[in-house]
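A.,

Following up on our hallway conversation. C-alpha cells first:
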C-alpha cells in the first residue's frame, strides 16, 4: 500500500506543479495585456496632442 500513497503524492505534486505553471502563464498574460493597454493609451494621447497643436486657428 505505500505505492498507492506514493502515487497519490506524486499525482498531487504533479497537479500542484501544473496549477502553478498555469497560474504563472495567466499572470504573464495579464501583464502583457496591461502593457499593451497602457501603450495604446499613450499612442492615443500623442495623436490627440498632435491634433490639438496642429489644428488651424480660427
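Then the amino acids I'd put at each of the 58 positions:
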Amino acid at each position: 500500500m505505500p505505492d498507492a500513497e506514493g502515487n497519490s503524492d506524486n499525482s498531487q505534486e504533479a497537479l500542484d506543479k501544473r496549477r502553478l505553471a498555469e497560474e504563472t502563464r495567466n499572470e504573464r498574460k495579464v501583464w502583457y495585456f496591461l502593457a499593451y493597454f497602457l501603450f495604446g493609451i499613450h499612442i492615443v494621447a500623442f495623436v490627440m496632442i498632435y491634433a490639438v497643436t496642429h489644428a488651424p486657428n480660427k
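The radius of gyration is 25 Å. Curious whether your intuition agrees with the design.

B.
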